[in-house]
Please model this.
Amino acid sequence: MTYFLVIPSSLPSVYITSCGYGRRGRSRGRSSRSCDGRASSSDDTQRRRVGTEAEKKAISLLSKLRNELQTDKPFLPLTDNCLDADIWNKYLEYHHTLLNENNKKISWFQSPWLYVECYMYRRIHEALVLSSPISYFDVFKESKERNFFESQEAIKTLCSYLQDLKKRIENLDEKQLKDEFLKLFQIVLWGNKCDLALSPNQSIPQTSSPLAVLEDLKPYILVNNLDYLWSLLISRKKMRQETFSITRVDFIMDNAGFELVTDLVMADFLLASKLATEIHFHGKSIPWFVSDTNKNDIYWLIEQLKAANTKCMSECGINWEYYLKHSWIYQDHMFWTLPHEYCTMSQVATDLYAELEKSNLILFKGDLNYRKLVGDRKWDFTVPFHQALNGFHPAPLCSIRTLKTEVQVGLAPGQGEEITDTDPQWMTTGKYGIFQFDGAL
Ligand SMILES: O=P(O)(O)OC[C@@]1(O)O[C@H](CO)[C@@H](O)[C@@H]1O
Ligand SMILES: [Mn+2]
Model:
């Protein structure tokens, strides 16, 4: 069963596919419980019935959501009693007070786009949560998996490159190491083209060799602060040889599938090169913006790699599974799936802010993170990134993002206008990218 939530204007479309509960035609007639405790067919029938009811409920809630959206109804408070529901509901009240007009309501076409989009994904989650026993079914799982399978060739190339690089890494001089660092970071950047929120029914797989195209893509990097990242990490590495300190790098992850592979390759490289000693990954705790990574996506990906019949891929899978058990730290926090701008993190999620303060470098992946970093405002292109962060400075940070929405700061005078002349769609196609750094070196 495929349920299509048609969403007008600039909002993304969402496919909800059957969750597999209550499928017809699996059980054949009556039978009693077997002596090994397996369920009887009447148990099966009961389970299918419950599953079908749950599916129907989820679909009706999603239909209702679609209708509210299409007819620009006021936003409704969440009713699912999840831990974050109160925060969402308070945020809604706060936005109502901002409107400052008694008869105006926060609604789909009248409210800030960042808020509207986040609210839509949270309401999709609510529809599932309220439909037990499929409450924690990931409606985007299928699209995420498709992106992974369609990017097999590129993933193989990357895994092979990494395995080979790790064999020679001890013998690289500083310049050679820097070259590898720059190369892998560019792969991480262009991996962000692969999100599914813009076209959920159409996976944009990475088909060509990601390494072969890097030179051709260089002109599309509008802000390139990779040298700052290199200076920061290499000077800490040198310092560590005299003092016993750590270098912690945090990935605020974005999309699963190919982009996730690029993140894991980067993390592996940073540790192997001793440019970092500690890696933290921050994922989403609910299905989010179609392709965003949650814990299951990482473990699913690792299982796929382990089972691959290409040695370099299975080696990566085995290594990454080991690192996730022993040295890489995966964490999620509800703040990442709230609509809040990051400048509010120190008040709204004090614990997360304190955690990020321990980092030596935070990598914010993707377009949505950028919008939340700079508050999704219509900034002048030349406003400094530091200023647009509006007080959000937990540690040195870098946004690694391909441009998919109309917000960009920190450009040189005239740079934005010049690109607009030649390529009017430059802010929304994912063709351009940035490495934008903020922090003391
Ligand atoms: O954060 P990502 O994965 O790079 O991009 C997510 C995204 O494509 O989804 C939304 C589309 O409506 C926009 O916020 C953004 O462009
Ligand atoms: Mn995303």
Remarks:
- The chain has two domains: 48-137, 145-438.
- The radius of gyration is 23 Å.
- Residues 195, 197, 254-255, 289, 291-292, 366, 368 surround manganese (II) ion (ligand 2) (CB under 6 Å).
